[in-house]
Amino acid sequence: MARTWPFVLDLIIAAAGLASFYAVLMVAHNWLGVAQPYTEIHLVPRALPLYALYSVVRIFVAYLLSLCFAVGYGYVAAYNPRVEGFMVAVLDILQSIPVLSFLPPVMLAMVALIPTRQLGIELGVVLLIFTGQVWNMAFSFYSSLKSMPKELREASDIYKFSAWQRFWQLEMPFSAIGLVWNSMVSVAGGWFALIACEMFTMGNHDFRLPGLGSYMQTSANQGDTPAMLWGLAVMLLIIIMTDQLVWRPLIAWSDRFKFEQTESQRAPRSRILEMLRQSRSLQAITARTASPLIEKIYVAIGRRHSQITQDKAVASNRILRIILGTFALLILGAGIAFAASQALLLLKDIRGKQLLHLMSGAAATFLRVEISLLIAAAWTIPAGVAIGFNPKLARICQPLAQIAASVPATALFPILLLMVVRLGGGLGVGSILLMLLGTQWYILFNVIAGAMAIPSDLKEVSTLFRFHSWQRWQTVILPGIFPFLITGMVTASGGAWNASIFAEYFRFKGHIMTTNGLGAQIAAATDAGQFSVLLMATILMSLMVVTVNRLLWRPLYRLAETRYRLDT
């Protein structure tokens, strides 16, 4: 049996590889075909496997784009003090803008770029899902870089690491835990945005793409309960498989990068990861291709880094970078000026009554956002710490939390709304519940990541000195999770603003239920094609987010970078 198992494991991996290759061919055939913005959605169970494949591919491609953008953006923001404040403010604004505000420019641009192929529409949907996934990952990577211990940076300077070596051997490993947990909540956010992205109206255009999101939205609009249950069951199956095949191995793998001096006795484990490590085929591929290639890259970079010692060469490279940077800033400035002029032309159609109505809606939505944040923080902080400190509890609760976070709140909202109405409430109260469903997971997953990242020796010291509960929270837990908690609160705030478009303007059984709020006004303006109202509402939301960012989040980020860093 010991000899047979590795062979069976290799066969399973080979079969998975062939299935993935076939899926890529099917998706490529669809994306490269003739453009079909409207597709009839069939509410039969046999259509679900193909719809699920299309949706999973869209979320996966959007996640890869999100990961690359988050790492690049966070790196530039963390190491460039001149533009750091501006980049963080822009990131905070973008993560708070609802996906429907991105919808008109993104879809029009993609369709105009590739007008005759389905690829243009698909890329537009992928970019829209991208806007629902990327921001919390960028905040997480940026926060990890800013809170990195000084002794690690000093060690990299002593050993004369190049930028490439420092990135892969220091910065990425230190950020791994936060990135993994934020990746989980990002993919959950992708499922949340999927329903809005695969089926929507924009003026006179009706876009419907085959996918699980359009299947669930169509079934909800028609009140087809069996179809809704079938779609929800398939989505849950995908989420469970993703958790077991992807997230659990990544959590166990990332635990090796925890910054501590003593090894934890209760590290998370994954049977899938242990099985993959036993695969002979993967070992052979790694030994013959990946390892030699990585070694050659590091040797080449090391030689190049050691050769760049002449001041003349350094000066010429610096001048070239300054010239290229100035040229890029000029192009960016020209683009921003052109976009601003076009925006001003749109805003001239706004009347005084419309502006007052938008401002009253902004105040109502702001109040709902803050209430949802307070409720979310009240239960997610103690729950996240309990899960992060106990690997056995994490093995039970983490998959359940991942499933709950990945189920789109809009799929559960009809049930919640009926309950609220029967209890005497309305959409004003129900919208807070929907915002809570869309925001609490950002805080929970970041707190779990922060609790897991606390070094085991600090936990053992608190136990050795017999800290009581409040001392343990005051001296170990809160300082340890603080950078992660701020990241979670910032991204949860953006998630609440984003969720307002669903919470305040909801379609159910052919009827539209709405309440006063900025999200409802954005959704209504998108349906009616009123781009001037949509732009003005987005500007108001951005101004409110910038104000909160400057007065609250930036000071808290500076506190996390200076006082609550793991230095010795």
Would you kindly provide a written description of the structure presented here, covering whatever features stand out?
The protein is an all-alpha fold and 568 residues long. It has one domain: Orthogonal Bundle (MetI-like fold). The chain has helices at residues 4-31, 48-79, 81-96, 99-113, 118-131, 134-146, 150-158, 163-198, 212-222, 225-254, 271-277, 280-307, 311-347, 352-389, 391-406, 409-422, 427-453, 456-464, 469-503, 518-528, 531-562, and strands spanning 199-202, 205-208, 505-508, 511-514. The strands form two sheets. A two-stranded antiparallel ribbon has the order 1-2. Strands 3-4 form a two-stranded antiparallel sheet. Helix 2 crosses helix 8. The relative contact order is 0.12.
